[in-house]
Amino acid sequence: MRFWNGFLNHTEEERDTAMSRETIAAIRKELEAAGLQQMREIEEKYGQDERAGVGRLLEAYRRRMEKLEAEYSRIEAMKAYEREYWEQGYRCICGIDEAGRGPLAGPVVAGAVILPRDCNILYINDSKKLSPKKREELYGQIMEEAVSVGVGYAGPERIDEINILQATYEAMRMAVSKLSEKPDVLLNDAVCIPGISVRQVPIVKGDGKSLSIAAASIIAKVTRDRLMEEYDRRFPEYGFAAHKGYGSAAHIRAIQQYGPSPIHRKSFIGHPVDVRLAPTGAAAEMRECGARSNPTAFMVGGARASGHTGLL
Architecture of 80-229 per CATH? Predict the structure, then answer.
């Protein structure tokens, strides 16, 4: 009652302003919840509203819808390879990608993903173009909405035994074998996997062109990153959570100080000896080792990496 009496004591202009502000707040809430499907209704409802605040809210809503529409178009474009084979009568189109060919430590992980035809998970992209937070969000969505997901691994010892390329193929074969649905076509990121009878389509830079391959890249990357964070708890002196096993200057210093851990790839790091680190960091070290002119010559402590076929 005191509130109502106080409200009545305001001038008519003040009361109108207060009511207007409340209405604009309600409109803001409505527009924040609205999507593309409600755009015509929103325009009809508020398009003629002369209040400046409503005009600003509408303009922000329109910009957001333009971006959303562009994202839907991008996702549809990334289904081009899948659509080609769906239209030929193939049902299960599987994307395959890997994470972890280049690091000095940890496994190589492969992901295999079969998405439904009506999949519209927004913001799926090459995992390298996404933030860790966005990859985690998309990982959950993919796992929930995919027809099937398979993950394969090859550990450091296996990489040292058969080389990184063959270990990558092995992880990919394992990922395919873990699928609950048998794929009709494999869309691969630029490789043809030996030992698989299913039709394969290698696509150069496929993780940026195919929705299924991009989804597989996210599954592989998030899975491997989680493993490296677990290894960081077991071997905190190496900083695996930060660099995920890649050859950063801090990582190389840790190898030189503590020696290789059980998860380091011996064929990549050799036997570290006393070597000076360039003050400009890992890029300078790679140049000194000849890695720019010869990508197979990455060295830690003066020992040439072997068996990785230039995939660092």
Answer: 2-Layer Sandwich (3.30)
